Amino acid sequence: MKLAVFDFDSTLMDGETIDFLAEPLGLKEKVAVITERAMRGELDFFESLTTRVQLLEGLETETVDSICRNLPFMPGAKETIEELKKRGYRVVVFSGGFRNATSHAREVLGFDADFSNVLHSRDGRLTGLVGGDMMFDFSKGDMLVRLQRLLGVGPEDTLTVGDGANDRSMFEHAKTKIAFCAKEILKKEANVVIDEKDLTQILMHVS
Question: Which CATH class is domain 2-205?
Answer without folding.
Answer: alpha beta
